[in-house]
Design a protein that fits this description.
With 410 residues, this protein is α+β, with helices and mostly antiparallel strands. The chain has 2 domains: 297 residues, Bira Bifunctional Protein, Domain 2 (BirA Bifunctional Protein, domain 2, 2-Layer Sandwich); 91 residues, Rossmann fold (3-Layer(aba) Sandwich), CATH 3.40.50. It is 40% helix and 22% strand. Strands 1-5-6-11-10-9-7-8 form an 8-stranded mixed β-sheet, sandwiched between helices. Strands 13-12-14-15-16 form a 5-stranded mixed β-sheet, with helices on both faces. The chain has a 3-stranded antiparallel β-sheet with strand order 2-4-3, with helices on one face. Strand 3 and strand 4 form a beta hairpin. The longest helix is centred in the N-terminal third of the chain and has 20 residues. The protein is elongated. The protein starts with 12 loop residues before the first helix and ends with a helix. The structure holds histidyl-adenosine monophosphate. The site of histidyl-adenosine monophosphate has 25 residues, from strand 6, strand 10, strand 11 and helix 11. It is an enzyme of class 6 (ligase). Belongs to the class-II aminoacyl-tRNA synthetase family. One of its GO terms (cellular component) is cytoplasm.
């Protein structure tokens, strides 16, 4: 038996309906803040992702050569693609630009629960606003979007300036390596790297940064940074709106493009892969031939949110199985159409089954049976059977539709 590729999943209808509901809630939250949906290609030129991060990330991507010999990759994330699109098509739009997306991403990772090779992100990008209010809006929107799904989480908000200030004397490659260990919370790797690079004096302040609970403590450890006023203002805006977050200046973020405010959210009930959102302020457009525009955004790990929420029952609306004798087939199609026009799901027999077998099938798959025999066809009626209670009554088609609708149309 052929199997699906490693790290991918199939979704049956129950799961798909739950996913669509949560997806809708996220889109609605973003829409309320003025963010409009965009869509970019599933694959891009490889360069789009290596320009900022270097060839190193090729190992984590689905890279291929197309028939024209061009190096392509399935997108590992959407931000770079959205900024490419901004440079291609969006430069003339009035700023700030508020865009959102729901898209699948592909990363060649070691699969485990909550970590897949194909996964979905719901994200936003706010392009062209470089203020504490812009940073705060993106954080508040992430908070609002996650809350709309019912997931419970802890939100951590930080800024890269204090950490970069501590690492200011390091070569860019070393700085990036140290930040990668911090991002992965890999203490052993970090210690070994600090010893190897003769930087053990940084171990204590780096650890202390992540422990700070107030902004003023951060500057005691890392020294004053020019971004201090901006950081304080962003946090004051979040406090004024009573956003439930924790200052965390140990956040390093895995992707290389962040420049300022950064934040992450963690589901309370997940194990190792509990990060359900990541984002921050960044600059990318200038790399793709555009202006050096300030941007800020986040992406929610949609699949992790679904794992965290768990299974839940959905209000499905009733299903009507249209059951008929061979002579009543034409009328059965009319009746099924009338139910559908009223927004009710109706299924007619396609198997050439007899009445008894049709009813038995309806009992497994439907809530009502609309039975049509010679008498009903002649009288223009249907016999509506409630398959849960067993009650049945011959009615006009309109009454039958009204009765099913009373139980909840889809
Ligand atoms: P990221 O932190 O790499 O950020 O990914 C965002 C979220 O996607 C993660 O927090 C996680 O929930 C989910 N995720 C990542 N990898 C996987 C995986 N293999 N399986 C399941 N879920 C995963 C970004 O992608 C940035 N583009 C976010 C951003 C938008 N920054 C600014 N704008």
């Amino acid at each position: 038996m052929l199997q699906k590729p490693r790290g991918t999943r199939d979704f049956l209808p129950d799961e798909m309906e739950r996913r669509r509901l949560i997806e809708r809630r996220m889109r609605e939250a973003a829409r309320r803040w003025g963010y409009r949906e965009v869509c970019t290609p599933d694959f891009e030129n490889l360069e789009l992702f290596t320009m900022k991060s270097g060839e190193g990330i090729i190992g984590e991507m689905y890279v291929f050569e197309d028939k024209g010999g061009r190096k392509m990759t399935l997108r590992p994330e959407v931000t770079a693609a959205v900024l490419r699109m901004y440079v291609n098509e969006g430069k003339v739009l009035p700023k700030p630009i508020r865009w959102c997306y729901y898209a699948d991403c592909f990363r060649y990772e070691r699969p485990q629960k909550g970590r897949y090779r194909q996964f979905w992100q719901f994200g936003v990008e706010l392009i062209g606003a470089d203020t504490p209010s812009a940073d705060a809006e993106v954080i508040m929107l992430a908070d609002d979007t996650l809350r709309s799904t019912g997931v419970t989480f802890d939100l951590h908000v930080g800024h890269l300036a204090p950490m970069k200030h501590l690492l200011a004397d390091l070569a860019p490659g070393d700085q990036r390596a140290i930040m990668a260990y911090l991002d992965k919370h890999d203490r052993e790797g970090l210690e070994a790297a600090l010893v190897e690079k003769n930087l053990t004096h940084l171990a204590e302040p780096l650890a202390a940064l992540g422990e700070c609970r107030t902004v003023s403590e951060v500057f005691e450890i890392a020294g004053d940074v020019p971004e201090r006023a901006r950081i304080e203002e962003t946090f004051a805006l979040l406090d004024a709106q009573e956003i439930d977050y924790r200052p965390d200046f140990g956040i390093a973020r895995g992707l290389d493009y962040y420049t300022g405010m950064v934040f992450e959210g963690f589901a309370k009930n997940l194990g190792a892969e509990n990060q359900i959102v990541g984002g921050g302020a960044y600059r990318l457009a200038h790399l793709f031939g555009g202006d050096d525009v300030a941007s800020c955004g986040f992406a929610i790990g949609f699949d992790r949110v679904m794992v965290s929420i768990g299974d839940f029952a959905l209000e499905q609306g009733s299903v009507v199985g249209v059951v008929c004798t061979p002579d009543a087939r034409a009328r059965a199609l009319e009746v099924a159409r009338a139910f559908r026009e009223a927004g009710i799901r109706a299924e007619a027999d396609l198997m050439g089954r007899g009445m008894g077998a049709q009813l038995a099938h309806a009992a497994k798959t439907a809530d009502f049976a609309a039975v049509l025999g010679k008498r009903e066809v002649e009288a223009g009626t249907v016999t509506l059977k409630n398959l849960h209670s067993g009650e049945q009554q011959e009615r006009s088609l309109e009454e039958a539709i009204a009765e099913v609708a009373r139980h909840g149309a889809c």
